[in-house]
Amino acid sequence: MSDAPITLAIDRYDRQIPFHDLTVRLPPGLDLEVLQVGQEQAQREGAHRHERMLRDREFDAAEVSLSSYIAACARGLPFTAIPVFPRRLFSLGQIFVHRDSGIAHPRELAGRRVGLQSFQTTLAVLAKGDMASEYGLSLKDVTWVMRDAETVEVKLPPGYTSERLAKGSNIIEALATKQLDAIFYSRTPWRDPDPALPIRRLFADPQAEEKRYFTRNGYWPIMHLVAIKTEIAARCPELPRQLIEAFRSAAEIADAYADDPGWSRFAWSKYARERETEALTSKLWPLGVASNRANLERFIGYSFEQGIIDRRLLVEELFHPSVHAT
After folding, report:
1. What is the third-level CATH fold of 6-88+222-323?
2. End-to-end CA separation in angstroms for the chain
Protein backbone atom coordinates (compact mmCIF):
# COMPACT_ATOMS: atom_id res chain seq x y z
CA MET A 1 0.00 0.00 0.00
CA SER A 2 1.17 3.53 -0.73
CA ASP A 3 2.55 5.62 2.14
CA ALA A 4 0.15 8.44 1.24
CA PRO A 5 -3.61 8.07 1.80
CA ILE A 6 -5.70 6.99 -1.18
CA THR A 7 -7.90 9.88 -2.28
CA LEU A 8 -11.49 8.74 -2.88
CA ALA A 9 -13.95 11.26 -4.36
CA ILE A 10 -17.59 10.33 -3.80
CA ASP A 11 -20.98 11.97 -3.42
CA ARG A 12 -22.74 12.34 -0.07
CA TYR A 13 -25.59 9.88 -0.57
CA ASP A 14 -27.10 8.17 2.48
CA ARG A 15 -25.31 4.92 1.56
CA GLN A 16 -21.98 6.75 1.56
CA ILE A 17 -22.39 8.81 4.74
CA PRO A 18 -20.37 6.20 6.68
CA PHE A 19 -17.33 7.24 4.62
CA HIS A 20 -17.89 10.88 5.46
CA ASP A 21 -18.65 10.50 9.17
CA LEU A 22 -15.81 7.95 9.61
CA THR A 23 -18.04 5.12 10.83
CA VAL A 24 -17.17 2.87 7.86
CA ARG A 25 -15.06 -0.16 8.81
CA LEU A 26 -11.91 -0.04 6.68
CA PRO A 27 -9.91 -3.20 5.95
CA PRO A 28 -6.49 -3.34 7.64
CA GLY A 29 -3.92 -1.32 5.70
CA LEU A 30 -6.41 0.85 3.81
CA ASP A 31 -5.80 4.53 4.48
CA LEU A 32 -8.41 6.74 2.78
CA GLU A 33 -8.79 10.46 2.35
CA VAL A 34 -12.47 10.77 1.50
CA LEU A 35 -13.46 13.83 -0.52
CA GLN A 36 -17.03 15.13 -0.92
CA VAL A 37 -17.23 16.02 -4.58
CA GLY A 38 -20.55 16.49 -6.34
CA GLN A 39 -21.32 16.44 -10.03
CA GLU A 40 -24.12 18.90 -10.78
CA GLN A 41 -23.95 20.63 -7.37
CA ALA A 42 -20.77 21.55 -5.50
CA GLN A 43 -20.02 19.88 -2.18
CA ARG A 44 -17.19 20.40 0.29
CA GLU A 45 -14.49 19.70 -2.32
CA GLY A 46 -16.39 21.08 -5.28
CA ALA A 47 -18.25 19.66 -8.28
CA HIS A 48 -17.64 18.11 -11.74
CA ARG A 49 -16.31 14.89 -10.21
CA HIS A 50 -16.50 12.84 -13.43
CA GLU A 51 -14.49 15.32 -15.47
CA ARG A 52 -11.95 15.85 -12.71
CA MET A 53 -11.32 12.10 -12.58
CA LEU A 54 -11.60 10.99 -16.20
CA ARG A 55 -10.15 14.11 -17.85
CA ASP A 56 -7.80 15.51 -15.21
CA ARG A 57 -6.98 12.32 -13.23
CA GLU A 58 -7.19 14.36 -10.05
CA PHE A 59 -8.14 11.54 -7.65
CA ASP A 60 -6.76 8.06 -6.96
CA ALA A 61 -10.30 6.65 -7.04
CA ALA A 62 -13.69 8.21 -7.67
CA GLU A 63 -17.35 7.58 -8.27
CA VAL A 64 -17.86 8.26 -11.99
CA SER A 65 -20.43 8.03 -14.76
CA LEU A 66 -20.81 4.47 -16.05
CA SER A 67 -21.19 5.73 -19.61
CA SER A 68 -18.13 7.98 -19.56
CA TYR A 69 -16.09 5.25 -17.89
CA ILE A 70 -17.07 2.77 -20.62
CA ALA A 71 -16.06 5.36 -23.22
CA ALA A 72 -12.74 5.79 -21.41
CA CYS A 73 -12.16 2.01 -21.37
CA ALA A 74 -12.88 1.72 -25.07
CA ARG A 75 -10.26 4.40 -25.73
CA GLY A 76 -7.63 2.76 -23.55
CA LEU A 77 -7.49 5.52 -20.94
CA PRO A 78 -5.54 4.57 -17.79
CA PHE A 79 -8.34 3.51 -15.46
CA THR A 80 -9.73 0.34 -13.99
CA ALA A 81 -12.75 -0.14 -11.71
CA ILE A 82 -14.43 -2.19 -9.03
CA PRO A 83 -18.00 -3.57 -9.23
CA VAL A 84 -19.42 -1.09 -6.73
CA PHE A 85 -22.30 1.02 -8.04
CA PRO A 86 -23.14 4.02 -5.81
CA ARG A 87 -25.94 5.47 -7.96
CA ARG A 88 -28.83 3.79 -9.76
CA LEU A 89 -31.89 5.22 -11.51
CA PHE A 90 -34.71 4.05 -13.70
CA SER A 91 -34.84 6.23 -16.78
CA LEU A 92 -38.63 6.17 -17.02
CA GLY A 93 -39.28 8.68 -14.23
CA GLN A 94 -36.53 11.00 -15.52
CA ILE A 95 -38.17 11.88 -18.83
CA PHE A 96 -39.97 15.22 -18.74
CA VAL A 97 -42.11 16.96 -21.35
CA HIS A 98 -43.87 20.29 -21.60
CA ARG A 99 -47.27 20.08 -19.97
CA ASP A 100 -49.02 21.26 -23.15
CA SER A 101 -46.99 19.15 -25.61
CA GLY A 102 -49.60 16.43 -26.03
CA ILE A 103 -46.81 13.83 -25.91
CA ALA A 104 -48.19 10.69 -24.28
CA HIS A 105 -45.95 7.87 -25.59
CA PRO A 106 -42.20 7.62 -26.21
CA ARG A 107 -42.71 7.08 -29.96
CA GLU A 108 -44.28 10.56 -30.07
CA LEU A 109 -40.84 12.01 -29.36
CA ALA A 110 -40.00 11.35 -33.02
CA GLY A 111 -39.55 14.64 -34.84
CA ARG A 112 -39.07 16.50 -31.56
CA ARG A 113 -36.21 18.34 -29.87
CA VAL A 114 -35.02 16.48 -26.77
CA GLY A 115 -32.56 18.03 -24.33
CA LEU A 116 -29.75 16.05 -22.72
CA GLN A 117 -27.04 17.02 -20.25
CA SER A 118 -24.69 15.44 -22.79
CA PHE A 119 -25.08 12.65 -25.33
CA GLN A 120 -22.94 10.38 -23.16
CA THR A 121 -24.47 11.20 -19.76
CA THR A 122 -25.38 7.82 -18.28
CA LEU A 123 -29.05 8.70 -17.76
CA ALA A 124 -29.22 9.95 -21.35
CA VAL A 125 -27.68 6.75 -22.77
CA LEU A 126 -30.00 4.62 -20.65
CA ALA A 127 -33.11 6.62 -21.52
CA LYS A 128 -32.32 6.63 -25.25
CA GLY A 129 -31.70 2.90 -25.17
CA ASP A 130 -34.82 2.18 -23.13
CA MET A 131 -37.01 4.34 -25.37
CA ALA A 132 -35.74 2.44 -28.41
CA SER A 133 -35.71 -1.11 -27.04
CA GLU A 134 -38.73 -1.00 -24.73
CA TYR A 135 -41.02 1.43 -26.60
CA GLY A 136 -39.93 1.49 -30.26
CA LEU A 137 -38.64 5.06 -30.60
CA SER A 138 -36.27 5.55 -33.53
CA LEU A 139 -33.39 7.55 -32.05
CA LYS A 140 -32.41 8.95 -35.45
CA ASP A 141 -35.82 10.60 -35.74
CA VAL A 142 -35.07 12.90 -32.78
CA THR A 143 -33.03 16.10 -32.66
CA TRP A 144 -30.76 15.73 -29.62
CA VAL A 145 -29.86 19.03 -27.95
CA MET A 146 -26.90 18.88 -25.56
CA ARG A 147 -26.24 21.27 -22.69
CA ASP A 148 -22.65 20.21 -21.91
CA ALA A 149 -19.50 19.07 -23.65
CA GLU A 150 -18.80 15.33 -23.44
CA THR A 151 -16.70 14.10 -20.51
CA VAL A 152 -14.86 11.72 -22.85
CA GLU A 153 -14.80 12.91 -26.44
CA VAL A 154 -17.21 11.04 -28.72
CA LYS A 155 -18.37 11.54 -32.28
CA LEU A 156 -22.03 10.92 -32.99
CA PRO A 157 -22.61 8.17 -35.55
CA PRO A 158 -24.07 8.91 -39.00
CA GLY A 159 -27.79 9.58 -39.07
CA TYR A 160 -28.07 11.32 -35.70
CA THR A 161 -29.11 14.97 -35.57
CA SER A 162 -27.64 17.03 -32.75
CA GLU A 163 -27.34 20.63 -31.57
CA ARG A 164 -25.90 22.45 -28.55
CA LEU A 165 -27.93 24.65 -26.25
CA ALA A 166 -26.72 28.23 -26.20
CA LYS A 167 -23.90 28.64 -23.70
CA GLY A 168 -25.24 29.34 -20.23
CA SER A 169 -28.78 28.17 -21.10
CA ASN A 170 -30.77 26.36 -18.44
CA ILE A 171 -32.15 23.06 -19.71
CA ILE A 172 -35.24 23.25 -17.49
CA GLU A 173 -36.07 26.79 -18.63
CA ALA A 174 -35.57 25.68 -22.23
CA LEU A 175 -38.26 23.03 -21.74
CA ALA A 176 -40.56 25.38 -19.85
CA THR A 177 -40.36 27.95 -22.68
CA LYS A 178 -40.88 25.30 -25.40
CA GLN A 179 -37.39 25.62 -26.88
CA LEU A 180 -37.30 21.88 -26.15
CA ASP A 181 -40.14 19.37 -26.34
CA ALA A 182 -38.67 17.02 -23.74
CA ILE A 183 -35.61 16.43 -21.58
CA PHE A 184 -33.94 13.24 -20.37
CA TYR A 185 -32.54 14.56 -17.10
CA SER A 186 -30.78 12.92 -14.15
CA ARG A 187 -32.32 15.35 -11.65
CA THR A 188 -35.91 16.38 -10.89
CA PRO A 189 -36.88 19.84 -12.23
CA TRP A 190 -38.79 20.74 -9.08
CA ARG A 191 -38.09 20.34 -5.37
CA ASP A 192 -41.79 20.40 -4.46
CA PRO A 193 -44.68 20.10 -6.92
CA ASP A 194 -44.97 23.48 -8.62
CA PRO A 195 -48.22 24.07 -10.55
CA ALA A 196 -46.68 27.16 -12.16
CA LEU A 197 -43.93 25.12 -13.84
CA PRO A 198 -45.37 23.80 -17.14
CA ILE A 199 -43.47 20.49 -16.99
CA ARG A 200 -44.68 16.97 -16.35
CA ARG A 201 -43.26 13.47 -16.53
CA LEU A 202 -43.83 11.66 -19.82
CA PHE A 203 -45.37 8.66 -18.06
CA ALA A 204 -48.53 9.36 -16.09
CA ASP A 205 -47.64 6.56 -13.63
CA PRO A 206 -43.85 6.26 -13.71
CA GLN A 207 -43.71 3.93 -10.72
CA ALA A 208 -45.92 1.42 -12.53
CA GLU A 209 -43.69 1.67 -15.62
CA GLU A 210 -40.59 1.17 -13.50
CA LYS A 211 -42.09 -1.85 -11.76
CA ARG A 212 -42.87 -3.41 -15.16
CA TYR A 213 -39.31 -2.64 -16.28
CA PHE A 214 -37.89 -4.30 -13.15
CA THR A 215 -40.13 -7.33 -13.60
CA ARG A 216 -39.02 -7.74 -17.24
CA ASN A 217 -35.33 -7.14 -16.68
CA GLY A 218 -34.64 -8.03 -13.06
CA TYR A 219 -32.50 -5.06 -12.04
CA TRP A 220 -32.36 -1.40 -11.15
CA PRO A 221 -30.14 0.25 -13.79
CA ILE A 222 -26.64 1.33 -12.83
CA MET A 223 -25.62 4.98 -13.16
CA HIS A 224 -22.17 5.15 -11.51
CA LEU A 225 -19.29 2.87 -10.61
CA VAL A 226 -16.01 3.41 -8.75
CA ALA A 227 -12.96 3.92 -10.97
CA ILE A 228 -9.31 3.70 -9.93
CA LYS A 229 -6.30 5.10 -11.74
CA THR A 230 -4.38 2.19 -13.27
CA GLU A 231 -1.07 3.36 -11.82
CA ILE A 232 -2.55 3.33 -8.32
CA ALA A 233 -4.01 -0.17 -8.74
CA ALA A 234 -0.62 -1.38 -10.03
CA ARG A 235 1.19 0.13 -7.05
CA CYS A 236 -1.45 -1.10 -4.57
CA PRO A 237 -2.74 -4.42 -6.00
CA GLU A 238 -4.80 -5.13 -2.87
CA LEU A 239 -6.71 -1.83 -3.22
CA PRO A 240 -9.60 -3.02 -5.46
CA ARG A 241 -10.68 -5.71 -3.02
CA GLN A 242 -10.11 -3.46 -0.02
CA LEU A 243 -12.36 -0.79 -1.52
CA ILE A 244 -15.10 -3.34 -2.21
CA GLU A 245 -15.01 -4.36 1.45
CA ALA A 246 -15.16 -0.74 2.56
CA PHE A 247 -18.22 -0.08 0.38
CA ARG A 248 -19.81 -3.28 1.67
CA SER A 249 -19.34 -2.03 5.22
CA ALA A 250 -20.83 1.36 4.35
CA ALA A 251 -23.86 -0.34 2.77
CA GLU A 252 -24.50 -2.43 5.86
CA ILE A 253 -24.36 0.63 8.09
CA ALA A 254 -26.61 2.64 5.76
CA ASP A 255 -29.16 -0.20 5.61
CA ALA A 256 -29.49 0.03 9.38
CA TYR A 257 -30.27 3.76 9.22
CA ALA A 258 -33.71 3.06 7.78
CA ASP A 259 -34.56 0.65 10.60
CA ASP A 260 -35.26 3.78 12.66
CA PRO A 261 -38.63 5.17 11.44
CA GLY A 262 -37.46 8.65 12.42
CA TRP A 263 -34.26 8.58 10.37
CA SER A 264 -35.68 10.38 7.34
CA ARG A 265 -37.17 13.88 7.24
CA PHE A 266 -40.18 12.39 5.41
CA ALA A 267 -43.11 11.42 7.60
CA TRP A 268 -44.09 8.39 5.52
CA SER A 269 -40.66 7.08 4.57
CA LYS A 270 -41.21 3.85 6.56
CA TYR A 271 -44.31 3.04 4.49
CA ALA A 272 -42.50 3.88 1.25
CA ARG A 273 -39.72 1.48 2.21
CA GLU A 274 -42.20 -1.31 2.91
CA ARG A 275 -44.11 -0.75 -0.36
CA GLU A 276 -40.90 -0.62 -2.38
CA THR A 277 -39.61 -3.87 -0.88
CA GLU A 278 -42.93 -5.55 -1.67
CA ALA A 279 -43.02 -4.23 -5.24
CA LEU A 280 -39.36 -4.76 -6.09
CA THR A 281 -36.97 -6.33 -3.57
CA SER A 282 -34.86 -5.31 -0.61
CA LYS A 283 -31.73 -6.28 -2.57
CA LEU A 284 -31.53 -3.47 -5.11
CA TRP A 285 -27.83 -2.69 -4.55
CA PRO A 286 -25.84 -5.86 -5.36
CA LEU A 287 -22.06 -5.64 -5.43
CA GLY A 288 -19.86 -7.79 -7.65
CA VAL A 289 -19.56 -8.70 -11.31
CA ALA A 290 -21.81 -11.77 -11.46
CA SER A 291 -24.94 -10.21 -9.96
CA ASN A 292 -24.66 -7.13 -12.21
CA ARG A 293 -23.65 -8.82 -15.47
CA ALA A 294 -27.00 -8.54 -17.28
CA ASN A 295 -27.37 -4.92 -16.20
CA LEU A 296 -23.88 -4.04 -17.49
CA GLU A 297 -24.16 -6.05 -20.70
CA ARG A 298 -27.31 -4.23 -21.68
CA PHE A 299 -25.77 -0.83 -21.02
CA ILE A 300 -22.64 -1.74 -22.99
CA GLY A 301 -24.99 -2.68 -25.85
CA TYR A 302 -26.71 0.70 -25.65
CA SER A 303 -23.32 2.44 -25.70
CA PHE A 304 -22.32 0.52 -28.82
CA GLU A 305 -25.63 1.07 -30.60
CA GLN A 306 -25.44 4.83 -29.92
CA GLY A 307 -21.86 5.09 -31.24
CA ILE A 308 -20.26 5.96 -27.90
CA ILE A 309 -17.95 2.93 -28.26
CA ASP A 310 -16.85 1.23 -31.48
CA ARG A 311 -17.10 -2.36 -30.21
CA ARG A 312 -19.02 -4.25 -27.55
CA LEU A 313 -16.72 -4.50 -24.55
CA LEU A 314 -16.76 -7.57 -22.36
CA VAL A 315 -17.97 -6.89 -18.83
CA GLU A 316 -14.63 -8.09 -17.48
CA GLU A 317 -12.81 -5.37 -19.43
CA LEU A 318 -14.35 -2.78 -17.14
CA PHE A 319 -12.86 -4.18 -13.95
CA HIS A 320 -9.56 -4.93 -12.29
CA PRO A 321 -8.59 -8.61 -12.77
CA SER A 322 -8.56 -9.21 -9.01
CA VAL A 323 -12.33 -8.67 -8.80
CA HIS A 324 -13.51 -10.62 -11.87
CA ALA A 325 -14.71 -13.51 -9.72
CA THR A 326 -16.87 -11.37 -7.43
Report:
1. D-Maltodextrin-Binding Protein; domain 2 (3.40.190)
2. 22
